[in-house]
Amino acid sequence: MTHPASPRALAPFFASTFFWNLALGMAQVLIPLYAYHLGFSGVAIGSLLSAPVVAQLGFNLVGGVWTDRVGGKRLALVSAAMLAVGGLVYAAAASYAVLVLAQLCIVVARSIYWPATWSIGSLLPGDRSAQLGRLNSITSAGQIVGAAAAGLAIVHLGYRAGFTAVALIGGAVAGGLMAAFAAPAHRAPATALPILATYRQLARRPSIWFGLATGYMAGLPFTLSFSFYPILLVEQGFTSDEAGWLIALRALGAVGAGVTAARFVRKVTARGIPVGAGVATALTIVLIAVFTHAAPISACLFLVGLASGVLTLYFQLLASEVSTLETRGATLAIAGMGWGLSHLTTPMIMGALTDALGIFAAFRLFGAGTLLLALGLGPLHGWAFRGGRPR
Questions:
Q1: CB proximity list for 84: less than 8 A, separation 6 or greater
Q2: Measured between alpha carbons, how far is residue 358 from residues 39, 53, 96, 176, 293 in Å?
Q3: Cβ of 264: how many Cβ atoms within 10 Å?
């Protein structure tokens, strides 16, 4: 009989997260390049990617509460099904309205997937930081393979075949593996508060707001990867398959963060880790648009993945430490809303800047604004941890 703490027992969960993120990594490259291929403007592409995120913010909060009520495994299965539907709709889409419908399916899948799997990861046996770091590394490894596969799919098979592969891998393969996983025993809250009451209670805590801010910074490179990084790289003269390989380096940096950061991201009260990682994230966003040679661009994409990976692990640990088992999913969801806000604001801002100034100037201005936000994490940390403890 397989022990629940053994690597063999945990293998279906980690394999499922790998394949789900492989499918998502493909979609990150396919979606903006497909919209660009169809001739949409920067604002239209930005709107396509950000407008459905309004729904994501709501589904994210609902998903967090329902993770606490029904367990992360069930919601992860729903997410796999929605990712499959989104891939199939994209494969048949040609008009802007159908593209928006497909993107809405992808957004719903993302919004409920992260609180569900992060909650499962925080409950796995063993060291919490190490298990979350392992989960983040496997997540990013899947995105590496997916980004590279998307570029190859565009060149050799076309967009429709690429989106069909997203549906099969993210739905059938990832969903089947998650169904085979024996998840940690779920304990529903004895008294379930209404959704608004749960989040009203959490919103009174300054540490939750700091977690949301670090989540926003962590999500920026991820958002740019499925929106304007592919377009920037094509404008710099790279082919679509080369762009896929280069974008995979961001996820490779996040793999490195998942493997190494678990060793030193242990005290959520330490200010230097989130502020330093935020500043590094902002600087690399600027530098990617400054360089034109593949070598420094590759280094910047790797470093931005590393820095944002540290921020991701930080806010996951922060949410885990300030929550109870009954509110773990909801706390991770509200901290993870930073990612949702990044997905909402970044494509629209970048789309408007690109149309007005060109994509290179847009990246430089956006990176400068990100640097100001990163520096603002310092005083925000002081407010959230006054007295040396999370408030």
A1: 167, 168, 170, 171, 172, 175
A2: 16, 24, 23, 44, 19
A3: 12
Q: What is the pTM of this model?
A: 0.70
What is the token pair recorded at 111?
């919004």
- How is residue 184 annotated by DSSP? P
Does the structure show a pLDDT above 90 at 234?
A: no
334-364 per-position pLDDT tens digit: 777 787 788 778 888 888 898 889 989 999 9
Measured distance CA(220)–CA(350) in Å, rounded: 11
Find the angle CA(59)-CA(62)-CA(68) to the nearest 5 degrees: 135
- How is residue 389 annotated by DSSP? S
Contact call for residues 209 and 227 (beta carbons, < 8 A): no
Contact 171, 84 (CB under 8 A): yes
Give CA–CA dist 130/127, Å, rounded: 5
CB 49 within 8 A of CB 31: yes
- Identify the sign of the CA torsion 57, 128, 305, 365: positive
CA distances from 372 to 300, 320, 380 (A): 19, 27, 13
Contact predicate 52/104, CB 8 Å? yes
DSSP assigned state of 263: G
Q: 104-134: per-residue pLDDT in tens?
A: 888 888 878 877 887 788 778 777 777 777 8
Question: Whole-angstrom Cα distance, residue 174 to residue 81?
Answer: 9
Return d(Cα 202, Cα 157) in angstroms, integer.
48
